Amino acid sequence: xxxxxxxxxxxxxxxxxxxxxxxxxxxxxxxxxxxxxxxxxxxxxxxxxxxxxxxxxxxxxxxxxxxxxxxxxxxxxxxxxxxxxxxxxxxxxxxxxxxxxxxxxxxxxxxxxxxxxxxxxxxxxxxxxxxxxxxxxxxxxxxxxxxxxxxxxxxxxxxxxxxxxxxxxxxxxxxxxxxxxxxxxxxxxxxxxxxxxxxxxxxxxxxxxxx
Amino acid sequence: xxxxxxxxxxxxxxxxxxxxxxxxxxxxxxxxxxxxxxxxxxxxxxxxxxxxxxxxxxxxxxxxxxxxxxxxxxxxxxxxxxxxxxxxxxxxxxxxxxxxxxxxxxxxxxxxxxxxxxxxxxxxxxxxxxxxxxxxxxxxxxxxxxxxxxxxxxxxxxxxxxxxxxxxxxxxxxxxxxxxxxxxxxxxxxxxxxxxxxxxxxxxxxxxxxx
DNA sequence: ATATTTTATGAATCATTCTTCAGGTTTGGA
DNA sequence: TCCAAACCTGAAGAATGATTCATAAAATAT
Lengths: 211, 211
Fold this sequence. Notes:
Two copies of one chain form a homodimer.
Chain A: H1 18-37, H2 45-52, H3 56-62, H4 66-91, H5 97-113, H6 116-128, H7 132-151, E1 156-158, H8 161-181, H9 186-206, E2 208-210
Helix pairs in contact in A: 1-2, 4-5, 4-6, 4-7, 5-8, 5-9, 7-8, 8-9
Chain A binds a DNA duplex through α1 and α3.
């Protein structure tokens, strides 16, 4: 798999004038729209450009290759989710472990289900790119936020916070993906919302002791 | 996304002679090898045929299109994992809930990590195909096996066994994928093996009561 | 007003790859 | 042995789509 990575995925040049910024935004938006309406395999640079109301050449002025586009879209989504997680972690410091678990689950699910169609489309996009660096960076950020949160719990002491934070991240991301990736029924989503907090709470209790 | 589904993905014709069966096996094997060495984006029908030691035409005699090949490979993997899960469920009937959780986790992880590289490659393959029917069938099979297992627990009674089986499936598949999909360190895998049983046991206890 | 930089165009290029088919080879039975 | 069915070949066809570049327009600076 020759999946591009690193520099090749960064923007070719920065827009300087307002109209250029506008163009880039339109391309961005068009990428998501095409992804949703046509799917990844039918996403061509020409089609995206057309949807954005510009020509292909313009697209290539800001993105050196098709995948740079996809990478940028994915990055934006992942960072939004990470922001939600980190903000929740900051807000829940020193709370009881129980509440932390509930809040964390809710924040994550809310962020991921804000636009389910887009989330699903991006799962597919991620498979097409070399996302090791991007996912690694996001993972590290989320990891330390969650670990620090756990350590600040007001009622209990979490043992091996790194292992627990690791498992918690995998559980949140994994279960959510398992449910959203397939065309989940409303019931599946409801079941996830109901069971995931129970799961996380039970785990945190099992992995902690009195202060 | 024009992802083929249903009939289009079934084999064009069945091999009748021994040499033909041999050819099909070789194509199968070659598909996985190319997937591992070149990646999905570089997997072309010609390349697979060459690796298998046959001509492209031969390949198209048994698979109507490239994706039928990928579908078949994925199907074989998923069914192997499902077999492992179902066998374990059958073996663990009437055991204590604790042991069930441990055995289930171990069986799933063993099946998925038997060939990590192939498992990772197939995560990517799955994203390229319309796997709704296939995944749905596998999910149903696993679901009823797990639910029946839970109901047979010798020491505790599981409430809402469908919801619990659902969550358990999502957790197993999701966390495992979250860890394997990225190039996980040996430590990550060890952490998963250590935490996942704890997670599942704690959850099952939380979702059950005395007999 | 003029020069310079930035931005936009889109037909043409270039490369890739799926898929077919007309014709040859091998197999197994009559 | 001979024939029909099964199997294999691989060059050619056809389509697709990523990317470039010469050119033109618009914005900004001088």
